[in-house]
Specification:
Largest sheet: 8 strands, mixed
Oligomer: single chain
Strand order of the largest sheet: 6-10-11-20-19-18-15-14
Mean pLDDT: 94
CATH superfamily of the largest domain: Bira Bifunctional Protein, Domain 2
């Protein structure tokens, strides 16, 4: 790897450490406290002269003023100033600090706590050693990486220089922990289901395909966890959930990434009205725990996550916004004619009626759903795994939850009739043959499970990444993923 001038200078300094018999990457350190602990106990420990050993990365500029020097270090808990005296350290260590240590180096310091004359809490350093020499310098502008793609591509550097980015991912962890507590407290059991699947299913999506050499078998990265979780309901569990990665071979934009994190939960002897309450309560509870309020601010919108969300029917919402009645425009040709007659712009003709309905809704209705809204009762063609409404068999007991124009949840009264499910799979197969590459596949083993009997069941899936976006006020999904998928360097 070719080094630039600054890297070469740092490599020379590294070699000087080795010439002194010092390992610039020692295998361990002797840290006694975190920086946060030192600051929390500062008054007592400074008064008592308690010796401590801290470790951290040098950040910001180092200042050398004659026989004194100052720098800051940071660890995972906070940052603190170092106060170094040539008289205390001796010529060799002080010179080493001045000439051979750099910003981003990781060091161990031993000393006592003191306030400087300016009143800044500091470590008065009596011993100093190198833990890791940084060969890459910080970005030119210390205040942080400004190029968004470069931040996401070098997330490790982004996290070093941008404390607010680290805080987002701390909050993400707290959100997932709160979600687990919410479900655990209600009797759900967390489970794990296969990521590699012989038949992909549970969502309308294009899969990633791979091959197992020893078995000579094509496998798919899962697009959803639904069908395996419902097998567990058949098996006798009454409440299960999984938080994990799904993979969909589709477009990338501010709301979509090829791999993403979802939570799916299933509850026996429940229906989609139970899932409505569960969805509202879960998001409201997590928002309160993470932000301290059920009202959040997202991209300039004040959004109230409770108590009850607005409820709209899909058919009614499209009719109100466009004048199109889906119960009359029941074929693709009829729906396309209605779209033209309504003068709707920016819509493309899709291969199936269901895809066309989805585009009308996504374009004409969804962007206006800023406050939490449940959109109910989707057509059967859009919902191959949901139970029909008894009084309106062309529709299903399904809802999607929207906040700030984003879909955050999707739920059904689950279809448990194996004969109806088989017919739905066959219809999806015909849609696939007609050009819908996201149509659901026939899953004979899942049908076999249903033939043993699945109780009435409610299921709900929630987009974890999008919930984190909402609760941390981030505009794109890439900002809440540690390592989002990016185009190759130099590609268009």
């Amino acid at each position: 790897m070719e080094l630039n001038e600054l890297q070469t200078q740092r490599l020379t300094k590294l070699e000087r450490f080795r010439d002194r018999g010092i390992d610039p990457f020692p295998p361990r350190c002797s840290r006694t406290h975190t920086i946060a602990r030192a600051l929390a106990e500062f008054d007592a420990w400074s008064e008592a002269g308690t010796p401590i050993t801290l470790a951290g990365r040098i950040v910001g500029a180092r200042r050398v003023m004659g026989k004194l020097a100052f720098a800051h270090i940071t660890d995972g808990s906070g940052h603190i100033q170092l106060w170094l005296s040539k008289q205390e350290l001796g010529d060799e260590l002080f010179t080493c600090f001045r000439e051979d240590l750099d910003t981003f180096d990781i060091v161990e310091v031993h000393g006592t706590l003191r306030l400087t004359q300016r009143g800044e809490p500091s470590v008065f350093v009596r011993g100093l050693s190198l833990l890791a020499k940084a060969l890459n310098p910080p970005p030119e502008k210390w205040e942080g990486l400004k190029d968004v793609e470069e931040r996401q591509r070098q997330r490790y550097l982004d996290l070093i220089v941008n404390e607010e980015r680290r805080e987002i991912f701390r909050q993400r962890a707290a959100i997932i922990a709160a979600m687990r507590r919410f479900l655990d407290e209600r009797g759900f059991i967390e489970v794990e289901t296969p990521v590699l699947q012989p038949i992909y299913g549970g969502a309308a999506a294009s899969p990633f395909i791979t091959h197992h050499h020893q078995l000579d078998q094509d496998l798919y990265l899962r697009v959803a966890t639904e069908l395996y979780l419902k097998r567990l309901i058949v098996g006798g569990f009454e409440g299960v959930y999984e938080i994990g990665k799904n993979f969909r071979n589709e477009g990338v934009d501010r709301l979509h990434n090829p791999e993403f994190t979802a939570m799916e939960c299933y509850q026996a002897y429940a229906d989609y009205t139970d899932m409505m309450r569960l969805t509202e309560q879960m998001i409201r509870t997590i928002a309160l725990e993470i932000t301290g309020s059920t009202t959040i601010i997202y991209q300039g919108h004040q959004i109230d996550t409770g108590p009850d969300w607005t409820r709209l029917s899909l058919v009614g919402a499209i009719r109100d916004q466009t004048g199109i009645d889906l119960m009359e425009a029941t074929t693709l040709d009829a729906l396309w004619e209605a779209i033209q007659a309504a003068g709707l712009k920016g819509l493309e003709r899709k291969p199936t009626w269901g895809k066309q309905v989805d585009e009308v809704f996504s374009t004409c209705v969804q962007p206006s759903l800023i406050q939490p809204t449940l959109v109910l009762d989707y057509p059967v063609e859009l919902s191959p795994l949901a139970k029909r409404k008894p009084d309106m068999p062309a529709l299903t007991e399904r809802f999607e939850g929207f906040i700030a124009g984003m879909e955050v949840a999707n739920a059904f009264t689950e279809l448990n009739d194996p004969l109806d499910q088989e017919q739905r799979f066959l219809e999806q197969g015909r849609a696939f043959a007609s050009g819908d590459d996201e149509a659901h596949q026939m899953d004979l083993d899942f049908l076999n499970a249903l033939r043993y009997g699945m109780p009435p069941t409610g299921g709900m899936g929630l987009g974890v990444d999008r919930l984190v976006m909402l609760l941390t006020d981030q505009a794109t999904i890439r900002e809440v993923m540690l390592f989002p998928h990016l185009r190759s360097r130099g590609s268009g």
